[in-house]
Specification:
Blueprint (H helix, E strand, L loop, with lengths): L15 H21 L6 H26 L17 H31 L21
Helix pairs in contact: 2-3
């Protein structure tokens, strides 16, 4: 156990570097929470839904082209429509993952732009002199 932490009043059972790295990660998660896991009533959630709808609509044609090139399974007696084949289901699942990745990429870009306003020059909200060094919070 170690008792050298600035914020801990009791013994902590892991190394100081891991402790402070964990604290910094938690701080980062709290800053990004509005983008990565927004509340349904928030502006970030509304932007997420709008972005997802826009990308889904844009990619609908791509999915239709992929499915059009696949043979359709025969209709079963007594059914109005044929069931999807395993290949069609696989294509749709991959398409959904691709859309989610595009949405995630868009949201990450929005978060990066929002935090970039605090940076005067370089890759973080700290002085440019600290860019190539390791420092503690």
């Amino acid at each position: 156990m170690c008792y050298t932490y600035a914020r801990a009043t009791i013994g902590v059972s892991y190394a100081p570097t891991a402790y402070y790295a964990d604290r910094l990660c938690e701080r980062g998660r709290s800053y990004l929470r509005g983008y990565l896991s927004p509340e349904p009533a928030s502006q970030h959630y509304k932007a997420y839904v709008a972005t997802k709808t826009q990308i889904t609509n844009q990619q609908a044609g791509v999915l239709a082209l992929k499915l059009a090139g696949m043979p359709s399974p025969p209709k079963l007696p007594g059914r109005n429509a044929s069931r999807k084949s395993a290949a069609q289901i696989q294509v749709e699942m991959k398409h959904e993952k691709d859309v989610e990745e595009l949405v995630g990429q868009q949201i990450r870009n929005e978060a990066a732009q929002a935090f970039a306003q605090y940076r005067h020059s370089g890759p973080g909200p700290w002085s440019a002199k600290l860019d190539e060094t390791m420092f503690w919070m």
